[in-house]
Amino acid sequence: MFISSQNSQPGFKDFTLVMPAVAVGNVGQLAVDLIVSTLNMSRVGYLHTDCLIPMAGNNPYPTCKEDAEELHTAAEVYTAVELKLAVLQIRAPIVQTKSKKFRQLIVSWIKASGFSRTVVLSSSQAYQRDDQQLQGTPLRYLVTPALQKVSEDALKELGWREMERVTAFPGVTDGSTESRLYIPGGGITKGLYTDSCAEDVSLAVLLIFCSEGDNIPDAFSLVNHLNDWLHLLDNPNQEPNKWKIPTSWSLLFGSGIPPALF
User: The dihedral of CA 75, 27, 110, 184: what is its sign?
Assistant: First the structure.
């Protein structure tokens, strides 16, 4: 599944893996863009799978004219060795009928690579929140039992809010309705979390409630939330533009309005 773009196979043992879920507003993918661009991470390989819709394009993080012409694909892996950080960027939707297969491939790769922990950046539909989720911050987290054992104190210190379980039929309070984990618009987030719990994988999910539109502010909120835990940057809030916006974002909403229309 993973194919190295280097002469030798890169080592991921004890690295932290950060990856997005293809979800509402593409917030996780935008947040990963900020991480790769800001830390100037090196591409070490890509995932070859039929579970993603095939796509290819120019380098989204060019530093000069020469590397701007490099070909990049739907799922690529970047590393920052000094931080022991690996990032998987997913740029294409998952084929609907192969969602389960893709989750299984990801979990298998995580276990085989020896990552110490995995963080999934995701999002969920703001309009489908439960009453209790309307209050306070729109940011939530989930953590598997395997990661809870080693990160419980750190998460308590951060004071984050765990993703609430909601009833299948909100408003029905007869006591027979069981609460469940519900992440509408979250793509494979719930399934990947559930699979990781079953496979004893150390995985956390960070997500934000949002709506489709200009989701750049949501991406900054999510990546700053992650930084509070992983300390990828020191004091990113001191300077508004500490996170480096990749040049590929200049066409995030397409090109400008053609003057010929007027």
Answer: negative
- In this structure, the strands spanning 85-90 and 16-20 are parallel
Tell me what percent of the chain is helix, strand and coil, each rounded to the nearest 5: 35, 25, 40
Helix, strand, or coil (residue 228) = helix
Tally of CB atoms within 10 A around 15: 22
Specify the pTM.
0.90
Residue ranges of alpha helices (H) inside the chain are: 27-38, 65-68, 99-113, 145-158, 189-198, 216-230
Query: Which residues are within 8 A (CB) of 54 and not within 5 positions of it... i.e. 6 or more apart?
Result: 74, 92
Q: What is the mean pLDDT of residues 42-59?
A: 92
DSSP secondary structure letter of residue 260: G
211-256 pLDDT, tens per residue? 999 999 999 999 999 999 999 987 555 555 589 999 888 877 777 7
Please report which helix (H) or strand (E) contains residue 124, including its range: strand 117-125
